[in-house]
Design a protein that fits this description.
single chain; alpha+beta; Ubiquitin-like (UB roll); transmembrane; transcription coregulator activity; oxidoreductase activity, acting on the CH-CH group of donors; TECR-like_N
């Protein structure tokens, strides 16, 4: 089989080739080629040569009869399109090359897309063409600056017809959501308890045994919160997206880890000034209640989405009294989360904790407003009396 890589090279450098055995049957030479594109099988090409003759018009009937003898009616009675205007010319090696090029071009255009093809299947086809573009890294859109299409949508549902276009965007290297969450939440635990030991690097030579009881309780509360988050990540959360951009890992971890260091430095400082008993106990009780509420909401949300699916339903209260907040806001998990950190700030009387609360509350409010808007757009009968995150207000 003639090697053609020096003659045919695609603009994207996608390698396509035909390899296979060669057979000689009397005056006929038959070459069976298995066609692969980027190492993916695409089909079989059959090349037949009648060696005593070099003029296609004189040999076509014999070749046709020979081919139909073992390929049947799949062989057309007419000569290949390429030869129809060259039937009386002397056949040259370049004619073979040109026919291979035509077939290779057809294989490239054959995507296997039909009206029932899903966006997820289109992504799989793109992945076959270029292995570095794994499915989670791809974003397909109807418009260059439009919204990413869901993997479950079909060509028909998008009203795409022959010649229609999808716009592709490379989302860059991806990392699993679960991995990101685990790193985000494990970091604050490690950092906080490192500073809890009052390392010399931060505090110099100080007493590492005398702690105010509020500082000890703050360490327990901090641990409860992040251990809960780690366990929820492993056993509770079901993610609608498998991955996120790798760059988000560094951004998210920096936020959590640095704030953990900032808060822990103050709550564990030898000169730390504790709040009044009323502030401490009221904050501690509120913290526990909000943590239970947050866990209850996460469990309720988990039960809305069957395992292995991206099904979305209107979240509603359950028998758990903590979920009653669904009657008033779309994202009560954020409401409880903010409540937890307000409570932590009160029970520790720590300004850095307050700054951490403010930063988190701002981001969660943005997320809540976005989710609230999406809920109202997706569900026609979404409860009208609900706010996004703060009952009756926002």
């Amino acid at each position: 089989m003639m090697k053609m890589t020096t003659i045919y090279t695609s603009k994207k450098q996608t390698k396509i080739e035909s390899k296979g055995p060669r057979f000689e049957i009397g005056d006929f030479c038959v070459k069976l080629g298995s066609v692969t594109m980027s190492q993916n099988f695409k089909g079989v090409l059959v090349e037949v040569e009648y060696r005593p003759c070099v003029v296609p018009a004189s040999a076509w009937e014999l070749i046709r009869e020979f081919l139909q003898g073992f390929l049947g009616s799949t062989v057309s009675n007419q000569a290949p399109q390429y030869l129809q205007n060259r039937m009386n010319e002397i056949y040259q090696p370049m004619d073979t090359i040109q026919q291979y090029l035509e077939h290779f071009g057809q294989y490239r255009k054959a995507t296997g897309v039909n009206p029932s093809t899903t966006i997820g299947e289109v992504k799989q086809e793109l992945y076959k063409l270029k292995k570095s573009l794994y499915v989670q890294r791809q974003s397909l859109r109807l418009d260059a600056k439009g919204k990413s299409l869901s993997d479950s949508e079909t060509i028909k549902s998008l009203s795409l017809k022959a010649g229609g276009k999808l716009y592709y965007k490379d989302l860059g290297p991806q990392i699993g959501w679960k991995t990101v969450f685990l790193l985000e939440y494990a970091g604050p635990l490690v950092v906080y308890f490192w500073l809890y030991q009052r390392p010399w690097l931060f505090y110099g030579n100080v007493n590492t045994y005398n702690y105010h009881y509020v500082a000890n309780c703050a360490a327990v509360a901090w641990s409860v919160h992040y251990v809960k988050r780690l366990l929820e990540t492993i056993f509770v959360h079901r993610f609608s997206h498998a991955t996120m951009p790798l760059r988000n890992l560094f951004k998210n971890c920096s936020y959590y880890w640095l704030f953990a260091m900032y808060v822990a430095y103050h709550t564990n400082h030898p000169l730390y000034t504790a709040p009044t008993k009323f502030e401490f106990y009221s904050g501690a009780v509120s913290f526990v209640m909000c943590e239970l509420g947050n866990l209850s909401i996460h469990l309720a949300l988990r039960n809305l989405r069957p395992s292995g699916t991206t099904v979305r339903k209107v979240p509603m209260p359950t028998k758990n009294p903590f979920t009653a907040l669904f009657n008033y806001v779309s994202c009560p998990n954020y409401t409880y989360e903010i409540g937890s950190w307000i409570s932590f700030t009160v029970m520790t009387s720590c300004l850095p904790a307050g700054l951490f609360t403010f930063a988190g509350a701002y981001q969660m409010t943005v997320w809540a407003l976005s989710k609230h808007k999406a809920y109202k757009k997706e569900f026609l009968h979404y409860p009208k009396n609900r706010k996004a995150i703060i009952p009756f207000i926002l």
